[in-house]
């Protein structure tokens, strides 16, 4: 009797070990298996597309010169950070998209000496002039990557779709980076966050 009790107890302990070694059928995902890291973004320059309005943006940027307005777009220039912010709004002043980019004076880039981290940022801390790899460290691999150009400069576009996070959040973020060159990593030159598709 004692032998059967020991054998039964041993079978109870060992059986799960054999069960775990069985191969899983194809197409069946283990709910505990690791998933690729990804994170979404809510704000850029302390504003949230689809939630913030133009009056909030004016209040946040009152230390800068008066904004420029052109056909639904409002823009400010921060001469110290060498950056420009463009806000696209709907007819009620609700911000639909926010774009932060390097500002070029008279076709000349004068921002080389501006330190990293100065200027407008995303809620998770991504800013212009940071290494492009930081976007991947913060948000994970982009939904897509594609080559781009601006003023004859080769660029790379990282496109993030956040529809997986829910319909009430910003849906799209684009991060534009310079292409790596001579061992120097690509740098962020433009960030766009939008409530809907771009």
Main β-sheet: number of strands, strand sense, barrel status? 8 strands, antiparallel
Measure the end-to-end span: 74 Å
Into which percent range does the helicity of residues fall?
10-25%
Give the assembly state of these chains: single chain
Task: Give the overall pLDDT as a whole number.
Answer: 82
The general outline is globular
Structural class: alpha+beta
Number of domains: 1
Biggest sheet strand line-up: 1-2-3-4-8-7-6-5
Number of strands: 8
Low-confidence stretches: 3-7, 12-30
Compact overview of the structure:
With 198 residues, the protein is α+β, with helices and mostly antiparallel strands.
Write the layout of secondary structure elements.
Blueprint: H1 2-21, H2 54-60, E1 68-70, E2 73-78, E3 83-89, E4 95-102, H3 133-139, E5 144-150, E6 153-161, E7 172-178, E8 188-194
Antiparallel strand pairs: 1-2, 2-3, 3-4, 4-8, 5-6, 6-7, 7-8
Keywords:
eight-stranded antiparallel β-sheet, alpha+beta, disordered N terminus, 198 residues, 8 strands, 3 helices
Structural commentary:
The chain has helices at 2-21, 54-60, 133-139, and strands at 68-70, 73-78, 83-89, 95-102, 144-150, 153-161, 172-178, 188-194. It has 198 residues and is an alpha+beta fold. It has one domain (45-194). The chain has an 8-stranded antiparallel β-sheet with strand order 1-2-3-4-8-7-6-5, with no helix packed on it. Strand 5 (144-150) and strand 6 (153-161) form a beta hairpin. The protein starts with a helix and ends with a strand. Mean pLDDT is 82; it is low at 3-7 and 12-30.
């Amino acid at each position: 009797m004692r032998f059967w009790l020991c054998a039964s107890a041993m079978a109870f302990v060992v059986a799960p070990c054999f069960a775990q070694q069985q191969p899983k059928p194809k197409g069946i995902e283990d709910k505990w298996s690791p998933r690729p890291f990804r994170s979404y973004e809510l704000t850029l320059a302390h504003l949230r597309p689809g939630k913030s309005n133009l009056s909030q943006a004016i209040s946040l940027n009152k230390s800068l010169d008066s904004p420029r307005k052109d056909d639904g777009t409002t823009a400010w220039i921060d001469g110290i950070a060498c950056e420009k912010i463009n806000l696209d709004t709907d007819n009620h002043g609700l911000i639909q998209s926010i774009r932060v980019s390097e500002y070029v004076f008279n076709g000349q880039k004068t921002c080389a000496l501006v330190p990293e981290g100065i200027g407008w940022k995303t809620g998770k801390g991504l800013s212009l002039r940071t290494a492009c790899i930081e976007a991947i460290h913060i948000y994970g691999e982009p939904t897509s990557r594609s080559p781009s150009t601006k003023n004859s400069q080769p660029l790379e576009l990282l496109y993030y779709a956040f529809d997986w996070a829910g319909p009430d959040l910003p849906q799209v973020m684009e991060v534009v980076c310079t292409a790596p060159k001579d061992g120097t990593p690509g740098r962020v030159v433009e960030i766009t966050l939008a409530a809907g598709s771009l």
